Amino acid sequence: MAFEYEALTRVAKNSSLTSGSIVQIPKVYHYDQTHHVLILQDCGDLPTLESVLLNTPPSIEVSAQIGHALGEFLAKLHVWGRENEYMKKTFENHITPVTISLFTSYGKSDATEKELVLTNAEKLVLNEIVTSVIESMQQRETFTMGEFWRGNILVDIDPDTTMLRQIYIIDWEMARYGLPSHDVAQFIPDFVMPPRFKYYLSSNALLSSFLLTYKKLCHLDNQDIKTVATHVGMHIFVWANGFALKYGEDKKQFVAIGTEYMMKAWGQDWSWLERSVIKDLF
């Protein structure tokens, strides 16, 4: 809780992140360190971005606006974090999010041996990938939000005008120093979906705008992009059952998709990656 308090208060004080921005974070009203009580702004009954995209997808224009705003906020957060000595010192020993992330993200896969159709050589590569991913989770390059996914983003869209009014990013308890590519990668997997769904065009516009804006403000080299693609694949692979239930597809399909992303990233198949969901990072 102490680290979430520090994250929220320090980010709020950075005018370059929040002043005049459509993206905001909950205000901190009270923090009792002794009794571990943190009172935050109530953002009301605003829906999550996940819910909005799945149930009432906004127009392509509004979707692109959301993506741009989120990409700008995250890029500025990462640039700020690289140079902020106070944040580095405060969060340098915050290892709990790493442990939780490793367990929840990679502790147990939804893919069973029966569904994992790999050659022995591919299985060896997969073991190397898992080891590499775990090692990358220990690296500390900049301040990261830690749980940057659609379920932690609240969206306020005017029901009458359908115009975007506000975006809130919530749940900062996993904030830590890590790789910026991890935040970017965590946002992407939910956008890997069959194109027949009604929300495909809105989702595609949002992700494209997000990646293009982020890339413009916070450069990612090929190694960073490889890390993004690897984590996207690992996330889909591990949470294949959840994706299958969400989209009404066979779990095997998402096991295969996750595996393909990991293998293509690991093999640095740039031509394939440039046509994938992360294409706008190039």
TrEMBL record:
<protein>
    <recommendedName>
        <fullName>Aminoglycoside phosphotransferase domain-containing protein</fullName>
    </recommendedName>
</protein>
<dbReference type="InterPro" id="IPR002575">
    <property type="entry name" value="Aminoglycoside_PTrfase"/>
</dbReference>
<feature type="domain" description="Aminoglycoside phosphotransferase">
    <location>
        <begin position="2"/>
        <end position="194"/>
    </location>
</feature>
<dbReference type="Pfam" id="PF01636">
    <property type="entry name" value="APH"/>
</dbReference>
<dbReference type="InterPro" id="IPR011009">
    <property type="entry name" value="Kinase-like_dom_sf"/>
</dbReference>
